[in-house]
What we know:
By secondary structure, the protein is mainly α. 75% of the residues lie in helices and 0% in strands. It has a single domain, classed as Growth Hormone, Chain: A, CATH 1.20.1250.
Amino acid sequence: MHERMAVPSVETRSSWVVAAVVLVILAVSFGAPWIVIVALKPIAAELGGLRSVPALATALAWTGFGAGGIVMGYVAERTGIRTTVILGAVMICVGLVLSTGGETWQLYVGQGLFMGFLGVGGMNAPFYVYVSRWFDRRRGSALALISSGAYVAGALWPPIFERAVAYVGWRQTMLYFGLLQVVVIVPLAAMFLRAPPELPLRVDAFGTLSAPNTVMGWPPNLVFALIGVASIFCCIPMAMPQAHLPALCSDLGILVSHGAAMLSVLLGTAFVSRQFWGWISDRMGGLNTALTGSMFQILAMVAFMFTQDEVGLFTVSAAFGLGFAGIIPAYVLAIRELFPASEAYWRIPALLLFSGSGMALGGWIAGALYDHFGTYAPAFAAGVAANVINLAIIGVLVFRQRSRADSVPIPKFAHTSQHPQTRTSESTGH
């Protein structure tokens, strides 16, 4: 049994209060892109009849989330999280208002630039960095909780939007929801978002030491690039059912309201299971959790290819939500485990840019393949292929991590003067 010096924890009741407030803010802000998904068919009908048009708007929003996270993460480091979140709420409102203009370019700019880059981009990635600094022992569980905001939004808002679009139209729905962003998020940010505590200095989650310029014996940026590419290929299939499930149901003769409910089931189960995945990741580590979740996801994607009836789709949607839910926070946890904490402000947003790009590609590819083939089967097949690539990359990283853990002895005591994840020497047994 290896012993480590006891280090005071920064976790308090305030840590969980902050995490809960962040969850609420993300649940509201991430509701905005679901309007286009729920109203995909009427928006497409008004803008030329091609589903790839609103699908591309959703793709631009996801890309904006990621790219904006890098820029706004840098801003948040210097001005504070409160400023970027308040600005983000206002920008989401502006983006939704612009999206109602009736021109294709207005939809693209409103969703991609204002709602995505400046809006959710000013909240999502900066929140991962911010909340991770409030926790040091149950960080995986905390990251799983706040990352569930997107799934709370997906479970809560689609049925509401479906009824709102049916009664007042998609434009009025966007206007009302834009106003809600400012009314809810700005007061919460002003009251609860304050500077996080200083983390005590200690070694990483596994108590291991390593050479200063390597991660698992490889160049750090090589490992980071592999994780980033893996996140792209896992998010391509992840996005497809989320972005096109209501439209798929409509094509099969299933009521639109049932399709929206199906999406809520998918994302509701994702929220519940994500808390379980967070508990798992605190015990087995980020990369192992990502590999396990990806295995579950590919099984559900295969099931989508062969399911056409309503009951079956409800079942597969629930299974898909249970499988993919833990993957993204597991990647974030892996970054915090493998790299210095001082690099979190840019590595985590960059990772989320990779994953957001994968979500964007997945949603757009599914729309483009549907326009070409008239069915979603080729899109789901492409998603399965992307998932296989993801499994191959993560499998290599997990094997490398395990082999290095087996070959490098763990010292009996680790000095608390080390940076949290910066290792200064590799034990050689001498």
